[in-house]
Amino acid sequence: MHKNTGTSCQRLQEGLRKVVRQAVRGECQARYVATLNAEEKQAFESLAPRRLVFWERVVRSELEMLVHAHGESAKRTRRTYFPFIGRGQPTAQLEWEPCWVDLCHWSGFRREAALHSLREPAESAFLLALVLRRLNDWVPQVRAAANFAVSRLLCRSSPAVAVDAILTMMVQWGDWGRISDDDKHFIAGILADPNIKAAFVERLSAASSGPMALALREALRTDALDTHLPAIATSSVQPAVRARAYRALLVGQATWVERRRWVWTDVRYCEGRLEAVIGSRPLAAKPERMATLKSAAVDRSALVRKVAAEALIREVPTFGHLALPLAEAFAADSSAPVAERGQFAMRQIRGPAT
């Protein structure tokens, strides 16, 4: 299995290097996967967004080799016909029209020009993810150009491609230090589009693996998914996604990590830690709490039932003895963490034993 995976990765690298050479020669621009066969195209589109940094390095290394090979060829030509020219003389530069490969170029001018040149809808999530990644570029002008390019391409691309790119970005931007909070809220706000929202909810609910709970947390920066949270909580395949949705519904607010800041614990020994700065907002639509609690209490995952038991403890002052049947059910749960919380809720309801 490992051998086949390595062979597939090597084949994809060769295919990517091939289309980079074609793009530099002007044979293909935004439709950069048109020259791959159906099998390579399918594998390329499924692997590339998840390994974005790796594929960026492949593109940049191929560009460097093309520029170096062109420089060496120009040197040999000039010395053949003009042998009196010294080695220090400048040689012809390899030039091409700005296209998608320049999104990975080492020059900020080329990256900015590439962002302005992209007008057609993105055919692959890889291309759209490359554009989204430029929101974390180290050049401010490139980040500004990426903001306009993202708003232009996301609306023109198909919902499936847009959702793939947005999911890839949401699970990675926690490690990005230059992307602004406004850009994050803007990307989350794209989910207000009905077609993109439907594709995003379907992907969250149907995915059996991957950091979908993290993507849901980031998507809740805006109220685009608030009305879909009950459906996500009941029908998602992953327990972590259901637990995240139930927690937001039971608490009545959405939370996410805005950024991480350094906090000194002992300045004398230069000891400290990164502390998360939590952002929050109230949900636009708040369902009935008791009905939501009863739904979460019968979930097949102990992780979700634990979230429900914690919410019940918070709601004991509100529900009073009406919460006793739920507390008894939690106390008899087969999961120890759920049972402990159910027993605690029962003691709160019944009062201290005499």
From TrEMBL:
Domain of life: Bacteria
InterPro entries attached to this UniProt entry: ARM-type_fold
SUPFAM superfamilies xrefs: ARM repeat
UniProt-recorded name of the protein: HEAT repeat domain-containing protein
Organism: Piscinibacterium candidicorallinum
